[in-house]
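Listing S7. Sequence submitted for prediction.
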Amino acid sequence: MEFVVQSMVMGIAVGSIYALIALGFALLFKATKVLNLAHGELVLFGGYLAIALTGVLPFPLAVLGTLVIAALLGFAVERVIMRPLFGQPLLSVIIVTLALGYIIRGLMVGIWGGDTRQFPPVLPAGLIRLGGAQVPQLGIWSALTAILLLAAFGLFFKMTYLGIAMRAAANEQLTASTLGVSLTRVVAYAWAFAAIAAAIGGVLLGLWLGVNVALGFVGLKALAAVILGGLDSIPGAILGGFIVGLVENLIGGYIDAHIIYGFKDITAFLIILAVMMIRPYGLFGTEHIERL
């Protein structure tokens, strides 16, 4: 029973971060139809940059600076790399994002090295007892922060002009353009917000796990959440993040501990394989039927 409680708490904690990262995945795909395979490296970028900035700034300012720089990076990628590819085959664009991810990864390792780097103690550490199980306080704080940020993103998309314009363009580009929404501007902001969501995920995961090259692969697990929920469904991506976190820690954690060591690390990718074979459009994605 203790294992179940601890795994569920940890699953919800890590799942909330997956959901936040997946939000950026889904938002970008919905607005541009581009599957950004560099998203995990943007998570890595956020973690490394935040740690570097905490060496010269107080932690809140370091996080704020990280998000601003991440947004600028998103704008720059869209303007310099992605916009000239407009109209090119979709596969070519996806391959470019894959190459971009390896470039970012190489630069991060070249600048900061491959050793695990830790944040200074900014949140309560240690273990707390919850339902008879011991769970790390950092995980709880990270989860609460991720959930609050998910709510903040939801309010932004529902209450602000820019958020409404982005939702309109993502749902129906032609109608939104007719009503005066700048699609170019929406795509640029989609890249910026995706980079911000990834950077926040990098900070939260870094506070909990430390930052090293493997963090990019952890961030890529959010891809499983997006595919499970539906590539073009933002609520589905968020729900998928929690499901992936729970399955990874409950089922993957049990198999990892009792049957095959290391199974937990591949659970998310097995979910991708299963969904693509059984329900390729995900739980809430739009089903496309082509007649042959």
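Caption to Listing S7: primary sequence and predicted structure tokens for the chain studied. DSSP finds twelve helices and two strands in the chain. The mean pLDDT is 83.
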